[in-house]
UniProtKB/TrEMBL annotation:
Database matches in PANTHER family: FORMAMIDASE C869.04-RELATED (PTHR31891)
The protein, known as: Acetamidase
GO molecular function: hydrolase activity, acting on carbon-nitrogen (but not peptide) bonds, in linear amides
Stored Pfam families: FmdA_AmdA (PF03069)
Amino acid sequence: GHTCIIPGYGPLAESKLWPELGEAYTHVIKHLPGSSGTTRDGKAVYREGIVWDLRPFIGTIGVAPDFEVESSLVGQGVWGGNWDCRDIKEGTKLYLPCFHKGALLYMGDAHATQGDGEWTGMANETKAEVVLNCRVIKNKKIPYPRLEKEESIIQLYTDKPLEAAVNKAVVNLMKWLVEDYGMAPRDAYFQIGVNPDFRINVYQMVDVGRLHYTVGAEFPKKYLNKKR
């Protein structure tokens, strides 16, 4: 894997304090296989003495937009796109609205690891072989892509400024709780404010070009009724 500095790119590209952060540079991160014999569960060696678990995920995934002509590199929207969301990983269910026959699913931008927000604009970039199981859910509409993990549900949203993304993610999470799990609107509202296990995840906060910020409003399943 690797991470790098691209001149003119990144939050400190014009830093006078640390001018070297605006100069081209590539840092190679060694990936070691785990018990599976692959790097899906291995280790990342940043340098000698600095090692952490590999946590691979897909940074970009989506379907063909309804009518827009969008970039598969930086496009983001209700169809999916460049989210750099670390929870789009092995074992997670991703719910995507679809607009065309066959959906025209695409993906790329694999990351081996990433810190919250991907603030520098570059993660631990890598290549990957991905196996997906896809299923069509008929007669179901959702306002924006959603995730379901073993112990929680996550409502995604991309927008700028950051508070706009957070607000829309939370409102759409509340709709999910009310419509699919039978939670009273007042209870959903209060639990967002007082439940210590509710989380707002800032997945991508790369301040470059047209990219918006990606957030996820996460709610534990242990507080939910059985899904309708």
